[in-house]
């Protein structure tokens, strides 16, 4: 019988050079580890978490993986636009895999949102992923024949399927990125596939107490959230399935099915 189910592997036509924004900590670190295990040279982008990024790169080097650290403020398009070329130069080839993980997550409401809070979310959470996706597609167009396929994974949020009245600027940015995911899946096909993951409760947010986080997890249908490793596994699955583009996989314990404020 033909062997149908193998360990997931990246397509051979995708250059094994990856860029992960916000790759030093939390879910981003899991993405970096997953890509390194898949044989990719990984550019670890950071803004303020320079020490954590350097330590992660050092750890990867000790295990025989190729990695570099790239620092940029994604709220500055001038800095964002340099990342693809820097990754290419540091790692010796065009970026074939982009994970747009970095984002700003701050609470505002309809009555408290300002132009400043709006811009603080829209630029890094929406504009930067678009600029980087443009850079990936342009770079691959110059790659050798047979190595021009690319993969983009946008990190969204389960709330794009389950809107709430809170975190207005953040939610607008992530919802727009979900639309951009599907738009670019059409525009960049067939050479580049664009998909997304939508985490729910994975790790406590800054300022969120453990008790509140636990109640949020307990309030999901599965009574638990997900781990960073699970989110990275979901991204890998999307990367390795050649017939999938323009999709989002929610890794949220089913939170998108019945959101409600924790008791």
Automatic annotation (TrEMBL):
Signal peptide: none
Any Pfam family the entry gives: adh_short
Keywords: Oxidoreductase
Single GO MF annotation: oxidoreductase activity
Gene3D superfamilies associated with the record: NAD(P)-binding Rossmann-like Domain
SUPFAM superfamilies given in the database record: NAD(P)-binding Rossmann-fold domains
NCBIfam families reported in the protein's UniProt record: PRK09134.1
Family: Belongs to the short-chain dehydrogenases/reductases (SDR) family.
Protein's name in the database: SDR family oxidoreductase
């Amino acid at each position: 019988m033909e062997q149908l189910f193998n360990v997931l592997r990246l397509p051979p036509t995708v250059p094994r050079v990856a860029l992960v924004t916000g790759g030093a900590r939390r879910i981003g670190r899991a993405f970096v580890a997953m890509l390194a295990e898949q044989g990719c040279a990984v550019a670890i982008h950071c803004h303020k978490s320079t020490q954590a990024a350097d330590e992660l790169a050092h750890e990867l080097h000790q295990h025989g993986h190729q990695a570099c650290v790239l620092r940029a403020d994604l709220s500055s398009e001038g800095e964002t636009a340099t990342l693809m070329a820097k990754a290419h130069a540091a790692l010796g080839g065009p970026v074939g895999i982009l994970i747009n993980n970095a984002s700003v997550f701050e609470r505002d409401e309809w009555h408290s949102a300002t132009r400043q809070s709006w811009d603080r979310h829209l630029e890094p959470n929406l504009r930067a992923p678009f600029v980087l996706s443009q850079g990936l597609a342009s770079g691959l167009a110059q790659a050798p024949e047979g190595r021009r396929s690319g993969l983009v994974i946008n990190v969204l949020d389960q709330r794009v399927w389950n809107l709430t009245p809170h975190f207005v600027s953040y939610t607008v940015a992530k919802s727009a990125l979900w639309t951009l995911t599907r738009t670019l899946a059409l525009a960049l096909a067939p050479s580049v596939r664009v998909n997304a993951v939508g985490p729910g409760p994975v790790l406590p947010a800054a300022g969120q107490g453990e008790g509140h986080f636990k109640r949020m997890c307990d309030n999901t249908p599965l009574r638990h959230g997900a781990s960073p490793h699970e989110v990275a596994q979901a991204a890998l699955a999307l990367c390795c399935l050649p017939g999938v583009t323009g999709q989002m996989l929610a890794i949220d314990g089913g939170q998108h099915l019945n959101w409600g404020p924790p008791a």
